[in-house]
Amino acid sequence: MQKNGGGSVINLTSIAARSIESAVTSAGFPTYSVTKSALERLSSYAGADLAQSGIAVNAISPGNAEYYMRDGRDPDMEFWGAPMVHLAAQRAPGGITGKIVHTYEYGDKWGPLYDTLPTRDARLNKMLAVSDNPEGYFAQR
């Protein structure tokens, strides 16, 4: 990437990296939560370290991945496509780098603002309403 003038690295994290509830519901899988936390720190540090080389490094979270796995649900593309393309287009310095962002906050709290946010179904709202954060990690404006 450095030889080619820059690029973008997108790491996939999850709410397990920071949620007390997720740590409890992932009992027996502490390695997953610890690894996601480490990936977030690595993304932050690498974003700072590589910025002058034109390389943006970010992490993106879909929320609680267990909901997708348990339900056999595919990622909600209306919430995934645009955020991933936006992050892939980032270049440092000047673009988004060293950040941990959330797919469901795109168009609301980061990236270009949507006039009308995509609609969330009941299952998605349940996943995003984390009990150890009364506002939910992904509360809409």
Descriptive account of the structure:
There is one protein chain. The chain contains five helices and three strands; from the N terminus they run βααβααβα. By secondary structure, it is α/β, with parallel strands linked by helices. It has a single domain (7-128), classed as Rossmann fold. The chain has a three-stranded parallel beta sheet with strand order 1-2-3, with helices on both faces. The longest helix is centred in the N-terminal third of the chain and has 21 residues, at 30-50.
Question: What's the quick description here?
Answer:
By secondary structure, this protein is an alpha/beta fold.
Which descriptors would you attach to this protein?
3-stranded parallel sheet; alpha/beta; 5 helices; 141 residues; globular; Rossmann fold; 38% helix
Describe the SSE topology:
Blueprint: E1 7-12, H1 20-25, H2 30-50, E2 55-61, H3 65-71, H4 77-88, E3 100-102, H5 122-128
Parallel strand pairs: 1-2, 2-3
CATH names the topology as: Rossmann fold
Helical content stands at 25-40%
Separation of termini? 37 Å
Please write the string of helix (H) and strand (E) elements.
EHHEHHEH
Q: Reading side by side through the largest sheet, how are the strands ordered?
A: 1-2-3
Tell me, rounded to a whole number, the average pLDDT: 80
Strand content: 5-15%
Structural class designation? alpha/beta
The CATH homologous superfamily name equals: NAD(P)-binding Rossmann-like Domain
Radius of gyration: 16 Å
- Identify the CATH class: Alpha Beta
